[in-house]
Write a structure and sequence with these properties.
It is a single chain. By secondary structure, this protein is α+β, with helices and mostly antiparallel strands. The protein folds into three domains: about 90 residues, 3-Layer(aba) Sandwich (Rossmann fold); about 70 residues, Dna Ligase, domain 1 (2-Layer Sandwich); about 130 residues, ATP-grasp fold, B domain (D-amino Acid Aminotransferase, Chain A, domain 1, 2-Layer Sandwich), CATH 3.30.470. The protein contains eleven helices and 13 strands. The strands form three sheets. Strands 8, 9, 10, 11, 12 and 13 form a six-stranded antiparallel beta sheet that branches. Strand 12 and strand 13 form a beta hairpin. Helix 6 packs across helix 7. The longest helix is centred in the N-terminal third of the chain and has 17 residues. The radius of gyration is 19 Å and the shape is globular. The two termini are about 15 Å apart. Its main location: cytoplasm. It is found in: Cytoplasm. Its cofactor is Mn(2+); Mg(2+). It comes from Salinimonas iocasae. InterPro entries: ATP-grasp (IPR011761), ATP_grasp_subdomain_1 (IPR013815), D-Ala_lig_Van_CS (IPR000291), D_ala_D_ala (IPR005905), Dala_Dala_lig_C (IPR011095), Dala_Dala_lig_N (IPR011127), PreATP-grasp_dom_sf (IPR016185).
């Protein structure tokens, strides 16, 4: 976090929030929290919802840069990043390629595999070729406990944990409502951790604990029974190992600027990569602000660090 910019250096800033994805509600909350923070710091910022305005209006508004707080499809998958590239408007975080790769859980795993990074065993279900009769074989191959995940949704939307072939078939059909490709992943029965990355720095890991079957949408945004541990309880050596792994995983997907990587810890203590997020939540329950606080960064310092990733001399520094 360099802190060498004055608020006026950022010019007129549009905070993109809302959008049309299934994560619109969370995006609105994230965006409003970030906007309030920027205004507290005397940044000339305003809210911009692409579901209510055309992106070309950014030119009419004489915007100097954009802070992207759009979660999910349309905002986190390279789509809006490509549009902003075409408009010539600088923006925060990962570019088109990094956003698209991280949004696709299947492509993420394939790249991590090719780089020798640890990830759970998996299968792919494609809507055009899926056969219900294959479910028993899939369950056996993946250890009889399987996570079903739409390939390109966030916030655990459309996900399910299954323990039988019949449940798997139902969960896959439900997931097809969100995506034509579905990731079927071996369930790791261990603690879940997340590592936030800001300007090339790995923040302290967070361990999540929930009474839910897994860390689902309700556990993330609505349920007060979810517990967050930061420091996470890892040894110094494990913390360093996890920070290195998550950094390598993020940059392998062409991630830039800031983001978050989620992992599971296996019974032998080793870690297994789950997914990378290029526009993580920034609500009062979100993980990046929690980790930043433990690292000595308040919310305003964090939002400023994120905004700095849109500056021209920052773009080549990460990834």
């Amino acid at each position: 976090m360099n802190g060498r910019y004055q608020s006026a250096d950022f010019g007129r800033v549009a905070v993109l929030l809302g959008g049309n994805s299934a994560e619109r509600e969370v995006s609105l909350r994230s965006g409003q929290a970030v906007l309030a923070s920027l205004l507290r710091q005397s940044v000339d910022a305003f809210a911009f919802d692409p579901a209510e305005s055309q992106l070309t209006d950014l030119i009419k508004e004489k915007v100097d840069r954009v802070l992207i707080m759009l979660h999910g499809r349309g905002g986190e998958d390279g789509t809006v990043q490509g549009a902003l590239e075409w408009l010539g408007v600088p923006y925060t975080g990962s570019g088109v390629l990094g956003s698209a790769l991280a949004m696709d859980k299947i492509r993420s795993k394939q790249i991590w595999e090719s780089r020798g990074l640890p990830t759970a065993k998996y299968q792919i279900a494609d809507k055009t070729s899926f056969e219900a009769g294959s479910c028993s074989a899939i369950m056996k191959k993946l250890g009889n406990k399987v996570m079903v995940k739409p390939a390109r949704e966030g916030s655990s939307i459309g996900m399910a944990k299954v323990t039988s072939a019949k449940q798997l078939e139902t969960a896959i059909q439900d997931a097809f409502n969100y995506d034509n490709q579905v990731l079927l992943e071996q369930f790791i029965d261990g603690p879940e951790y997340t590592v936030s990355l800001v300007q090339g720095r790995a923040l302290p890991s967070i361990r999540m604990s929930t009474p839910h079957t897994f860390y689902d949408y309700a556990a993330k945004y609505h349920d007060n029974t979810t517990e967050y541990f930061c420091p996470s309880g890892l040894s110094d050596s494990q913390e360093a190992e996890l920070a290195t792994l998550c950094s390598e995983a993020f940059y392998a997907l062409s991630g830039k600027g800031w983001g978050r990587v989620d992992v599971m810890q296996q019974s032998d203590g080793s870690f297994c990569l789950l997914e990378s997020n290029t526009v993580p939540g920034m609500t009062e329950k979100s993980l990046v602000p929690k980790a930043a606080k433990v690292a000595g960064m308040n919310f305003d310092s964090l939002t400023r660090a994120i905004l700095e990733t849109s500056m021209p001399d920052e773009l080549a520094d990460f990834g």
